[in-house]
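Help needed: design a sequence for this.
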C-alpha cells in the first residue's frame, strides 16, 4: 500500500448548503412528486412497529428455556446421595438451538442482570454482603485455536474479575498465569464465605461443534482436576444434538460432567409464533398484512431451509422494503384521505397516478366491500373511472378502513376456530386432518379455503352433549375476554350469543342453534383476501417472489443467464446501421462484444457431454477472428464517445498495427493472445462449476450443465 491518500476535511456548513438528492421511483410515470420520500417514511414507521413486536414475541418465546438455563447455572442443586456418582461433578447445561444468535442474545439479556445481583444480607445471615452470584467467561472457537490460548483467556478473565473483590490486589491479579493462581485468588476473595453463597464460575462455550475436540478434551480434564477448589458451571450451546459430545470426545473426558439438556424452540415453532403474533393476534393490528403467499414462503424457509428467527425477521424486512418500492404503497398511510384537500394535493394534474389508484381500488367481488348499507363504497368500483378525481382520496380512506376491518374480523374468526379445535382435541375429536398444521390453517383462511374445516367444526359443535357444549362456551367466553376493547366491540354479537347459550337450560334443540350461529359467523368473516380492495397496496404478497429471490437466490440460473445474455449487465451493444440490424452480420458483430467466457459458453451448448479442447479453441478463434475489424469500424463512427480507443468488456483493441512487425510475428502474437484468453476463460467456467476436466483424457472437458433456456 504505497499509494497516496487525499483526506478531505468534513465541513458541516458545506453539507447544509447542498440540496437533498431526489429519491428515484420504481414507476415514475404513475408516481407523484415526493412519493418515494413518503413511502420511505411510511416504511420506517411500519417496520419499526413490526420489529418491536417481533422482539417481544421472541423474548416471550425463549423466556422459559432461558429461565431454566439461568436457574441451572446460578442455583445450587441438592446432591443425590442415593445414586452412584463421583465426589465432584461439574454441572453442565447443553443448550440445543438451531438459532444460536437469537438464543444467545436472549440468554445473556436474562443472565447479565442476575449475575450482577448481590447476595442479600438477610438471606446470608453471616455478613456476606456484596458477593456476586457468578463470574462468567465466554469462549469462542476462533480465539481458542490452541490449549495455551484457551487457558490464557480463562485465567486472565477470571483473575481480572476476582481481583475486584480483593483490596489492593491489582498486582496479584496481573501475576496469575495458570489455574493454580486462579484457585488461590478465588480462595482469598471468597474463602470466608459459606459454600452456599460462593459465586459460581461459569464457562460458556458457544457453538461447541466449532471447537477442536482434542483441545476441548484437555480443557475438560483440567477443569475436572480443579473442580474441588473451584465451583465450575459449564454451558455448551449446540446446533445439532446432545449426542455430538459422545461422538466427538471419549467417555473418559465426559465422566466428570453432570449434563442436562435444554431444547430451544424449533424454527417451525418460531415461524408459527411470529406469524400468529404479527398477523393473527386480535390485540395487534399491522398496517401491512401478510397474505397466503407470504405465509407459504416463511413456512418453507423455516421447514425446508431451517432458517433461524433472525433469517425470518430479515425475510419480513426485505418484503416490507420491496413493498414500499411500489407507488401504491403510499395508500397504506393512515392519514391519507382523512383530511380535506388530500385529493387535490395527490391527484391534481396526475391523471396516470389517478388511474393507477383507481385500478388498485377495483376489486374482483364488489359485494364484499359494502359492509354497511350506508357506506360510500356501495357504489361499483368499476364506475370509479367515471367519477371525479377529488373523490379518490376519500374512497381510499374508506377502502383502507374496510380492509383493516375485514382482516380484524378474519383474525377473530381464526382465533375462535383454533379455540374450538383445542377444546375438541381434549374430547378426542378432530376438526381437521393431523397433517394440517396451524400455518396451513392460516394460509387456507386467507385464501377462503376453510369451508370443509368450518363445516366439520360446526357439525361437531351441534353433536356435543350439554356439558361439553357448556365447557366450549366457557372457553370461547375466556377467549373473547382476552381481546382488546375495540375488537370486543366489533364482536359484540358473538359475545352476546355465547352468554345467552350459557344461560340456557338443557335443551338440545335450543343448544343446536349455536352451531348455526357459528356457521353464519365464519361465513361472514372467512373471505378471500385477494378480493378486497387495495389488496396490492396493503398486503405483502405481491413482492414475496422478489424478496425470496434475494434471500434464497438460484445461483446456477443466475450465472447461466449472465453468460447467455451478458449485455444485460455490461456496456451497450455495437451500433449498426439500420439495414444491417437483425442479419447474420449483426449477430457476429454482437458476439464479438461478448466476454470471452460468454463466447466459450455459447459455443459449448452445441457440443455433447465431452468437449474437445482443440476444437473448442478453434471455434473460439473463429468467433473473435474479426474482432479488430469491428472495433476499428466502431472507432470511425463520428461520435465523441467512439473516438476514444476501443475498450469493450475488458478487451483492448488499438486498430491496425503500425509497429513495424512482420505478418508472421503478428500472427504468432495473436495466436498466443488467444490461447491465454482461452485458458483463462476455461478456468473461469470451471470455477463456477459449468464444466470439469477429465482425469483420463486431459484434452477433453466434461460439461456439467445441460438443458439451458435462452
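Sure. Designed sequence:
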Amino acid at each position: 500500500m504505497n499509494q497516496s491518500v487525499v483526506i478531505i476535511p468534513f465541513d458541516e456548513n458545506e453539507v447544509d448548503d447542498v440540496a437533498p438528492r431526489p429519491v428515484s421511483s420504481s414507476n415514475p410515470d404513475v408516481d407523484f412528486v415526493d412519493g418515494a420520500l413518503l413511502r420511505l417514511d411510511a416504511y420506517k414507521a411500519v417496520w419499526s412497529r413490526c420489529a418491536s413486536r417481533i422482539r417481544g414475541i421472541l423474548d416471550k418465546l425463549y423466556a422459559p428455556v432461558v429461565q431454566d438455563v439461568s436457574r441451572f447455572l446460578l442455583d445450587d442443586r441438592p446432591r443425590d446421595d442415593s445414586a452412584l456418582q463421583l465426589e465432584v461433578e461439574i454441572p453442565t447445561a447443553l443448550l440445543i438451538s438451531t438459532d444460536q444468535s437469537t438464543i444467545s442474545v436472549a440468554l445473556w439479556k436474562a443472565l447479565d442482570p442476575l449475575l450482577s445481583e448481590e447476595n442479600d444480607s438477610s438471606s446470608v445471615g453471616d455478613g456476606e454482603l456484596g458477593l456476586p452470584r457468578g463470574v462468567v467467561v465466554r469462549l469462542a472457537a476462533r480465539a481458542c485455536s490452541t490449549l495455551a490460548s484457551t487457558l490464557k483467556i480463562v485465567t486472565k478473565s477470571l483473575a481480572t474479575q476476582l481481583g475486584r473483590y480483593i483490596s489492593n490486589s491489582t498486582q496479584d491479579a496481573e501475576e496469575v498465569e495458570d489455574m493454580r493462581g486462579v484457585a488461590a485468588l478465588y480462595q482469598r476473595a471468597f474463602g470466608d464465605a459459606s459454600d452456599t453463597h460462593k459465586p459460581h464460575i461459569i464457562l460458556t462455550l458457544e457453538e461447541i461443534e466449532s471447537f477442536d475436540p482434542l483441545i476441548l478434551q484437555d480443557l475438560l480434564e483440567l477443569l475436572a482436576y480443579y473442580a474441588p477448589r473451584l465451583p465450575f458451571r459449564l454451558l455448551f450451546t449446540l446446533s445439532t444434538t446432545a449426542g455430538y459430545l459422545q461422538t466427538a470426545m471419549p467417555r473418559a473426558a465426559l465422566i466428570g460432567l453432570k449434563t442436562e439438556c435444554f431444547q430451544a424452540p424449533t424454527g417451525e415453532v418460531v415461524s408459527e409464533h411470529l406469524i400468529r403474533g404479527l398477523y393473527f393476534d386480535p390485540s395487534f393490528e399491522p398496517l401491512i398484512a401478510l397474505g397466503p403467499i407470504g405465509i407459504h414462503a416463511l413456512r418453507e424457509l423455516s421447514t425446508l431451509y431451517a432458517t433461524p428467527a433472525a433469517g425470518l425477521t430479515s425475510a419480513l424486512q426485505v418484503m416490507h422494503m420491496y413493498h414500499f418500492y411500489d407507488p401504491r404503497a403510499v395508500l397504506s398511510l393512515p392519514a391519507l384521505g382523512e383530511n380535506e384537500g388530500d385529493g387535490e394535493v395527490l391527484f391534481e394534474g396526475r391523471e396516470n397516478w389517478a388511474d393507477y389508484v383507481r385500478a388498485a381500488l377495483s376489486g374482483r367481488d364488489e359485494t364484499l366491500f359494502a359492509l354497511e348499507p350506508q357506506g360510500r363504497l356501495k357504489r361499483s368500483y368499476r364506475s370509479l373511472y367515471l367519477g371525479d378525481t377529488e373523490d379518490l382520496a376519500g374512497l381510499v380512506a374508506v377502502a383502507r378502513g374496510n380492509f383493516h376491518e375485514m382482516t380484524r374480523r378474519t383474525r377473530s374468526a381464526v382465533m375462535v376456530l383454533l379455540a374450538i379445535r383445542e377444546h375438541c382435541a381434549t374430547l378426542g375429536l378432530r376438526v381437521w386432518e393431523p397433517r394440517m398444521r396451524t400455518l396451513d390453517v392460516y394460509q387456507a383462511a386467507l385464501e377462503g379455503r376453510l369451508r370443509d374445516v368450518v363445516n366439520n367444526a360446526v357439525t361437531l359443535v351441534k353433536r356435543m352433549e350439554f356439558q361439553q357444549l357448556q365447557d366450549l362456551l366457557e372457553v370461547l367466553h375466556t377467549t373473547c375476554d382476552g381481546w382488546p376493547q375495540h375488537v370486543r366491540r366489533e364482536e359484540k354479537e358473538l359475545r352476546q350469543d355465547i352468554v345467552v347459550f350459557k344461560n340456557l337450560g338443557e335443551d338440545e334443540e335450543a343448544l343446536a342453534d349455536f352451531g348455526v350461529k357459528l356457521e353464519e359467523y365464519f361465513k361472514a368473516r372467512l373471505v378471500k383476501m385477494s378480493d378486497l380492495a387495495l389488496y396490492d397496496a396493503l398486503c405483502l404478497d405481491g413482492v414475496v417472489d422478489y424478496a425470496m429471490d434475494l434471500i434464497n437466490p438460484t445461483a446456477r440460473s443466475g450465472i447461466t443467464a449472465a453468460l447467455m445474455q451478458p449485455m444485460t449487465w455490461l456496456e451497450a451493444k455495437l451500433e449498426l446501421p439500420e439495414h444491417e440490424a437483425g442479419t447474420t452480420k449483426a449477430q457476429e458483430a454482437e458476439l464479438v462484444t461478448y466476454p470471452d467466457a460468454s463466447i466459450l459458453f455459447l459455443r459449448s451448448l452445441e457440443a455433447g457431454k465431452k468437449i474437445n479442447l482443440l476444437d473448442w479453441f478453434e471455434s473460439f478463434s473463429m468467433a473473435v477472428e474479426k474482432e479488430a475489424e469491428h472495433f476499428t469500424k466502431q472507432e470511425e463512427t463520428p461520435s465523441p464517445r467512439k473516438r476514444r480507443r476501443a475498450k469493450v468488456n475488458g478487451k483492448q483493441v488499438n486498430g491496425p498495427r503500425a509497429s513495424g512487425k512482420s505478418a508472421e510475428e503478428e500472427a504468432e502474437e495473436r495466436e498466443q493472445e488467444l490461447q491465454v484468453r482461452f485458458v483463462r476463460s476455461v478456468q473461469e467456467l470451471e470455477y463456477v462449476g459449468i464444466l470439469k476436466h477429465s482425469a483420463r483424457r486431459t484434452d477433453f472437458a466434461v460439461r456439467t450443465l445441460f438443458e439451458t433456456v435462452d
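The chain has 30 helices and ten strands.
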